[in-house]
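dumping this here so i dont lose it
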């Protein structure tokens, strides 16, 4: 790597905000001998352009000796962010490569077949005469020879050990704050009838009843590996497979690899990974790693010489490094200043109590009422509600519809989330989108969204064995940082440029407690936001005024950041410091809010608190 090439590699005609100073600091950090540089850059600082500049400093083929690594990787866990890179003209020299299932075959009669199910994947010795034009193999060949290959983190990790995508000189990981969690997720082995093709051929033990559940799981994994091998070998005797058989073969091989990795890592006395097992229904099970350092070394750290990790929310350098298997003393941190005026990104306290599972039945109706007041306040502006779970989303949608506001409300489910999001973004109507798990990688610049609500403090699910194990070990700071990180990410969805503006409303009083407990971990620019939190002056509760389809006066937040009421009305309550958690300033519930069945009972499921399974 030649750090002096970082600034000349900047792809835009001019710098914006603090980009130039940030790149100078990154250059100096690498020049000082650091192999890993963390770049803490807030939303809107142009991280993709910074990433391109850093990747441009990689050793070239012409400069390298035969055994030396050359060129660079750009990777991100977010598919939508990779899509943005592919569409950005300033990043046209990044060659994007995706997994096989994202490409379709070009052979006559197979045009609707994904490449991983095409004849070349189904027939022995198939000689594809058009392989040179195959969209997947063409992109792969180009990416393998291009100076910067861009891919998702999942594809990057899956290609560890590949002869095509070998070690490179520089690796840039965007949105790197969740690297440890992503690694844990990718290394998790999910065993159930949907993921194990030979499920009916095996007897699943009750590992919870064993003296050592993990050891019992290891023995089961060894037996299952053998069953998978025999089933796969049987398929390989066939000269041609159907698409379903090809999928079965690939899944058997993938499962064998996962299980072998688990067994070898568990048996390895030098591995720092701790394995835990969940078997909630007594049949299916999840095998999960804690702090999978060895996995990360294999899939990430062995893939490059120099690393730049970019994110707005690497909150604690030492804790982050420990979580991904790095020595903090060998890692440099570069802080990029926020250039968005704090007045344009205000936080407002509209808390109505706690949204934990025990208190939600009492608090959620009050949140629905404050949403009505916010819809009247922003009657001509689009809004986003971070519902946190499908249970909360379903209940808010039901209550707002019963109040006659269904025509202004949009929502999504697990299958149509992208389509519904794009439809909402495309409309000019002031619709309100009830979202689940959209706190990251969502660009709602300008009038796409002027206000948003965070319904619940996004704490991780304590029923998850990995979370429970860490809390048993007293890792409460880690637990709170994870929630704070999600909140900061969410706050960045609606303000995307220095001249953009948007309001974020806090509906869960647990958020105020979170801010108090994590103050020392906050970036200075977010701490300033929190310190300026005020209670807005909202209109009275009036569903008709919240309809948003007629009338004059837009309400909402002015360009300077001051909240203005759509009309005179009662204040939303006292200041965050003086109002007790859960106080009801909106009065008692209406008949429409206090009656009616819940959405099929799934909202009672404890996992709905975090993962949205309710």
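and the seq i came up w/
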């Amino acid at each position: 790597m030649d750090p002096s090439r970082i600034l000349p590699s900047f792809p835009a005609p001019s710098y914006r905000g603090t980009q130039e100073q940030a790149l100078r600091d990154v250059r100096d950090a690498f020049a000082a001998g650091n192999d890993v540089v963390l770049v803490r850059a807030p939303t809107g600082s142009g991280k993709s352009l910074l990433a391109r500049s850093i990747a441009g400093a990689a050793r070239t083929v012409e400069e390298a000796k035969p055994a030396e690594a050359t060129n660079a990787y750009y990777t991100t866990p977010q598919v939508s962010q990779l899509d943005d890179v592919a569409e950005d003209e300033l990043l046209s020299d990044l060659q994007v490569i995706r997994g096989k299932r994202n490409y379709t075959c070009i052979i006559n009669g197979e045009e609707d077949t994904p490449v991983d199910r095409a004849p070349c994947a189904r027939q022995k010795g198939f000689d594809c005469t058009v392989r040179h034009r195959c969209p997947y193999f063409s992109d792969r060949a180009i990416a393998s020879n291009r100076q910067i290959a861009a891919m998702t983190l999942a594809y990057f990790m899956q290609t560890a050990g590949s002869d095509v995508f070998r070690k490179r000189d520089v690796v840039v990981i965007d949105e790197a704050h969740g690297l440890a969690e992503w690694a844990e997720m990718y290394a998790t082995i999910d065993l159930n009838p949907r993921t194990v093709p030979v499920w009916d051929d095996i007897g699943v033990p009750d590992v919870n009843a064993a003296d050592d559940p993990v050891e019992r799981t290891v023995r089961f994994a060894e037996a299952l590996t053998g069953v998978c091998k025999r089933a796969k070998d049987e398929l390989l005797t066939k000269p041609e497979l159907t698409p379903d058989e090809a999928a079965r073969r690939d899944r058997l091989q993938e499962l064998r690899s996962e299980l072998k990795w688990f067994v070898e890592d568990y048996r390895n006395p030098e591995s720092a990974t701790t394995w835990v097992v969940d078997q909630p229904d007594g049949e299916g099970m999840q095998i999960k790693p804690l702090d999978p350092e060895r996995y990360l070394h294999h899939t990430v750290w062995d893939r490059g010489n120099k690393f730049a990790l970019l994110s707005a929310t690497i909150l604690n350098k030492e804790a982050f490094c420990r979580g991904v298997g790095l020595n903090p003393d060998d890692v440099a941190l570069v802080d990029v200043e926020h250039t968005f005026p704090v007045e344009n990104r205000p936080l407002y306290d509209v808390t109505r109590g706690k949204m934990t599972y025990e208190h939600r039945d009492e608090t959620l109706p009050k949140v629905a009422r404050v949403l009505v007041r916010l819809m009247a306040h922003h009657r001509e502006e689009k809004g986003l509600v971070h519902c946190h779970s499908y249970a909360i989303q379903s209940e808010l949608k039901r209550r707002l519809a019963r109040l006659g506001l269904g025509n202004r409300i949009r929502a999504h489910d697990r299958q149509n989330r992208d389509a519904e999001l794009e439809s909402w973004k495309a409309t000019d109507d002031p619709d309100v989108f009830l979202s689940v798990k959209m706190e990251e990688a969502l660009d709602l610049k300008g009038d796409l969204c002027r206000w948003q609500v965070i319904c619940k403090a996004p704490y991780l699910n304590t029923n998850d064995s990995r979370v429970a194990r860490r809390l048993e070990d007293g890792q409460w700071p880690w637990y709170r940082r994870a929630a704070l990180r999600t909140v900061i990410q969410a706050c960045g969805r609606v303000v995307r440029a220095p001249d953009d503006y948007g309001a974020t409303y806090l509906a869960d009083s647990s958020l105020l407690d979170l801010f108090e407990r994590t103050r020392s971990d906050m970036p200075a620019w977010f701490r300033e936001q929190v310190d300026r939190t005020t209670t807005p002056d909202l209109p009275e509760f009036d569903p008709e005024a919240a309809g948003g389809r007629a009338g004059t006066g837009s309400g909402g937040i002015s360009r300077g950041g001051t909240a203005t009421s759509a009309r005179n009305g009662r204040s939303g309550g006292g200041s965050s410091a003086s109002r007790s958690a859960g106080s009801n300033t909106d009065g008692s519930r209406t008949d429409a809010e206090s009656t009616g069945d819940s959405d099929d009972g799934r909202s009672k499921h404890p996992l709905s608190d975090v993962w949205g399974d309710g």
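The CA atoms of residues 38 and 333 lie 5 Å apart.
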